[in-house]
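Form P-L/3: holo structure prediction, ligand adenosine-5'-triphosphate.
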Amino acid sequence: MTEVDKSSKLSRSEVFRSLRGVTPLLSRHKGLLIGWLLALGVTSSATLTLPIAARRIIDQGLGASMAHTNKAFVFAVAVAIIMAIGTAIRFYFISLLGERTVGDLRKQLYSHLIGMDLAFHDRHRSGDLISRLTADAELLRSVIGSTISVALRSLVTVFGSLAMLFVTSPRLAAYTLIGIPLAVLPIVFAGRTLAKASRRSQDRIGDANSLATETLQGVATVQSNTREDYERGRYTQSMDLAVRTARKRITTQSLVTALVMLLVFCSIIALLWLGANDVTQGHMSGGTLAQFLFYAIIGAGSVGALAEVWNELQKAGGGMSRISELLETPAAVQDTGNARPESVRGELQFRDVRFEYANRCDRPAIHGFNLHIQPGERVALVGPSGAGKTTVLNLLMRFYDPTDGSIAVDGTDIRQVSLQSLRENIALVPQSPSLFAASVMDNIRYGRLDAGDDEVIAAARAANALEFIQALPEGFNTLLGERGARLSGGQQQRVAIARAILKNAPILLLDEATSALDAQSERAVQEALEHLMANRTSLVIAHRLATVRNSDRIVVMDQGTITAIGTHDSLLAEGGLYADLAALQFMAMES
Ligand code: ATP
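OUTPUT (holo model):
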């Protein structure tokens, strides 16, 4: 089901179910919540005493003795001071509560996302995930920071002023009971439409964010194809769609607000007319009518505020449903195994492994894959592009779980080992190394966070990276750009190799680890890797056969399955795919 389909089915109960997800987050900050409620109690009570001050000023103050007048005014000033201080405290507590809760929500969501399997990340665009982490969570901040505050305050004020209306004039008050439900009706009817519109609007913002993230990350590709104007057009279209979607929500919201205001003011005017009649006939004093009106206006203002609150809640419900959807998606790769082997020898066993990527169910990336690797053995995977070599490494790392069959390390199924201990025992140098916007030192240390500086330097030396690192403006402390930009492809690979060397794991996976190096650097790095691979189980993927000819065994893969296994010489003698590949490569080298 697409997100748009889902959004059209967002019901009111779903909005509240999504918003209920916030309750545990709120309850973590009980102190702030209680402080806010207390301040709210004080300010609401103070607001409700203001009309009394007004009546006193009119009935006792005006025309009476100066002492009475002064007393009435002092009372009014005292109420104003209490209200001011109470409001400041209330604002402080609720704003902080909003920030803390949204901070917690963002931490919870990030922690969930960073642990999700790669199939999940294949499905979701990172720009949309970032949008949920930022824009959608932001909606919630406004809900807690202001909406909930306004909601409770308004509710207290509506009921408080209603009670006071009855105290002031039960007859007139009875009429308000007709007005209030009338004013609330449009709010209730528009609620569901608003929630749907808001969800759609957030979805469109997510789309626009995805597009921006993707194209900014691939800015070199955009510019090299001179697609700047094309991308400007696409972003403009995407943003316009987001604004058009938001406009639908805003239109509904404006209409509801106008209708509520009209109903509220008409009710007040009707009350004023009735009250004016009472005063003329001497049934009521002018001050009492003023007090009544004051309560009616305060109450009406709060009903209006409640209408806005309802709108805001629907809006945040839409955003929160996008967040809950992610939080409620379980990881396909479950960390249920609790075995934590003390030391790993590195024996690997693939049994009848089959795997399809979720979006390519028609065609298995790997099938009938059987391979037994002895501890310390060096095995190369070769074969044409798309044969499934990287997939074998992905499955061993448990980035994905096989659809069928099993993989074992030292005889234990990797699903029974904790994910952390499995991955701690494997060092992977991926096809395209991913470096972070941090110093070279920290990028290498990512392999083992407790490594000392000298260990990092030794790893860099072993990866033949020391020379170029020292030539950087600030050596090991040079900050790399996002994804390691500012280093050449070959330099990035050497940093990634240094990271793997530092990790010092018993199983080593190299996926085209030296493909971006020139022949001379490759030879130097190859030497370092030879040292590294000694006494470790290693699985090496390489297109350049010269780099794998010394492997203990070479596994030839084609279309997701093993077609031959042997040594360089035996495979050459056998003929077939390997011999063909070798002939092509060595012929090219000779010529
Ligand atoms: P290369 O030598 O080009 O890196 P490879 O032998 O490592 O290729 P794999 O990356 O394992 O090949 O891919 C095997 C098959 O699975 C290919 O057909 C590829 O299109 C598909 N594939 C790889 N990754 C994904 C993915 N994330 N989602 C869907 N299909 C994928």
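COMMENT: Strands lie at 348-355, 366-373, 378-382, 404-409, 412-413, 426-429, 507-511, 537-541, 553-558, 561-566.
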